[in-house]
Amino acid sequence: MTQDTSPAKPQPLREKLRHNIPLNYLFTFLMEFGLARGIWMLYLAAKGLSLFQIGLMETVFHVTSFLMEVPTGVVADLYGRKVSRALGRAADVVSTALILLSHNFTGIAIGFIFSALSYNLESGAGEALVFDSMKQLGEEDRFIGVRGRTEMICQGVSVISLLIGGYIATLNFDRVYQASLVISLLALASALTFTEPTIVGQEHSGNVFKLMWKQFTDSLSVIRGSRKVMALIVLSELVGVFSTTLFFYIQNYYKSQGLNEFQIGVILAVGGVLAALSASQASRVKRLGKLRMLITALSLAMVVCFWGVLAGRSGAIFFALLGALYSMIWILIGDAIHQLIPSEQRATIISMQSMLFSLLMILLFPAVGKLGDLYGLRQAFVFVALSATLALGGFITAINIVSRRSNTA
N or C: which end of the chain has fewer CB within 10 A? Predict the structure, then answer.
């Protein structure tokens, strides 16, 4: 009897899970093609909103996000990452349409509520879908490389969209949001092409509220049980809140310095190029030393850049470098967190992380807007730099003291 030596037939599920990686690159391209990213604050100002009112819009976004992060993360864990992603893109379509068509505070605020929901539904589900697909394939060690390439796509698309969006805005603000609506619809179609990874041990039947409560408490127990996970989450969101606040308000700051929308887009795009290059090197940087030492160095460099942004015309250089540093630290911390948490609670824990970011934004963003209205954005940026110095410097110092005492990295 002759032995069958023909190649083994491909395993359909494994192939589909493997295809999730390139599909995620396409989805990321469409989702991050944010033509309005560099001009949304200018757009709201053109509609008659003050800096404080614009700050309140961001507060509306993050209050919604704070309240909905954990529920949407639980949805992704219990009912599927693919479902959550698709619902997120549908919410983004509604948000873009409302902001485009509304001409008053209330209508735009509702648009920001849907924008927050789109962010919530993606934040816990996206990375969880990719990591668990790779884990099911036995390739989770490659995740940092995939995450780096994904971030490189994000930043590369950001460069293109900032330039295109800035140019279109010089012609007509509404055209930016009309084009964004079409892109959001394409992203929604892309979200439907993923294959759901199998999560072993996950409960899907029973009372929905009891399941959600159990998912929340189990996830909270994971965080409480690991000081390293808790520290990484806090540091990641501290870095994120200061960087994001500066990124958004700097649009209006440069506008007050006499730059037009296209020139502002160019500055933001340069930062995006450096961030993309930084993301592409994350896996190599990881091999250079202990995570704690790398994060300490990157965090302190970011503090220097927060102050450097105030240095006249050369401040744009520090702003661009800030984006590169944030991209690197975000990838390193994110990879470390994913390696430490279980699949069953992955989306919920990542949503808890995003919830902390929203809480910090609720506190910081409108305060910076109010300071900008009262004293000018330069003085508001001094407040951001000082706050970043105290928060990041203090937290990094505490982490290193605790680590030396416990003799852990």
Answer: N
- Rounded to 10 degrees, what is the CA torsion of 245, 250, 253, 257? 170
Residue with tokens 């864990």: 77
In this structure, are residues 295 and 333 in contact, taking their beta carbons and an 8 Å threshold?
yes
Query: What is the rounded CA–CA span in Å between residue 347 and residue 73?
Result: 5
Instruction: Kindly report the length of the chain.
Output: 409
Whose CA is closest to 76, among 28, 124, 114, 120? 124
Q: What is the pLDDT of residues 176-216, one digit of tens each?
A: 999 999 999 999 999 999 988 876 555 555 566 676 777 77
Query: Measured in whole angstroms, how far is the alpha carbon of residue 4 from the centre of its chain?
Result: 50
Q: How confident is the model at residue 402 (pLDDT cuts 50, 70, 90)?
A: low
Contact between residue 324 and residue 285 where contact means Cβ atoms under 8 Å apart? no
Could you give the C-alpha distances from 140 to 18, 132, 220, in angstroms and in order? 12, 8, 23
Three-class secondary structure of residue 243 per DSSP: helix
159 burial via Cβ count (<10 Å: 0-12, 13-18, 19+): buried
Q: Count CA within 13 A, CB hemisphere, residue 258.
A: 1
CB hemisphere CA count around 152 (13 angstroms):
13
User: Residue 309: enclosing H or E segment and its boundaries?
Assistant: none
pTM surpassing 0.70? no
Helix (H, G, I), strand (E, B) or coil at 168: helix
Q: What angle do CA 288, 289, 293 make, to 5 degrees?
A: 130
DSSP 345: G
3-class secondary structure, 369: helix
Query: DSSP readout, 252-278?
Result: HHHHHTT--HHHHHHHHHHHHHHHHHH
For residues 367 and 358, give the distance between their C-alpha atoms in angstroms, rounded to a whole number: 14
Q: What is the pLDDT of residue 172?
A: 87
**What gap in Å lies between CA 60 and CA 265, rounded to an integer?**
25
Block residue for tokens 């930062």: 271
Non-local (6+) Cβ contacts of 138 within 8 A are: none
Q: What is the pLDDT of residues 238-297, one digit of tens each?
A: 999 999 899 888 878 888 888 877 777 788 778 878 888 888 787 787 777 677 788 888
More confident residue, 320 or 11: 320
Rounded Cα distance between 127 and 392, Å, is 25
